[in-house]
Amino acid sequence: MTARFKQPVSVLVVIHTPALDVLLLERAASAGLWQSVTGSREDDEALATTALREVAEETGLHTTADALTDWRLANRFVIMQRWRGRYAPGVTHNTEHVFSLCVPEALPVRLAPDEHSAAEWLPWQQAAARVFSWTNRDAIRLVARTINEPASTRCIF
User: Fold this and answer.
1) Which domain holds residue 17?
2) Residue 117: band (very low, low, confident or very high) from pLDDT cuts 50, 70, 90
3) pLDDT (tens digit, 9 = 90+) per residue, 12-41?
């Protein structure tokens, strides 16, 4: 049997309401580590497909690609040592592509218990302060800054 490693290409999906309440998930194996939806690309799937799959797997929310906003932003960062065993030997960096999903209100979610132990909707400022990664913090701030501008992004969930 061949070992299957995660690709060092992932998505981060900031799920938010029009009022900029942001959904955060607490990692099951790492109490206190809060994040938006994240996940690695599988095979050669399109990044939007990865984003939709991860949203469904981690929250139980199902939507379509036209509801996503692709920020056309990719962040490269060092993979934390505790998670490097999931990747092929020698892989030390990941490239994360930023998406967002506007939902009409703070919706109940169904967590994947092997991945997350809690979910919470927070105002964007509190969410940005709580997440553990700088890429997630910056993505939340980007979404908030843009939505607060005239002609803000649409919410078509």
Assistant:
1) 9-147
2) very high
3) 999 999 999 999 999 998 899 999 999 999
Residue 46, CA distances (Å) to 8, 79, 99 in order? 14, 22, 13
Q: Distance (Å, rounded) from C-alpha 139 to C-alpha 144?
A: 9
pLDDT for 40-96, tens place per residue?
999 999 999 999 999 999 999 999 999 999 999 999 999 999 889 999 999 999 999
Q: What global pTM score does this model have?
A: 0.91
- Asked if residue 157 is part of any domain, the answer here is no
Q: Does any domain span residue 1?
A: no
Domain of residue 52, CATH code: 3.90.79.10
The answer to whether residue 154 is domain-embedded is no
As for how many domains the chain has, the answer is 1
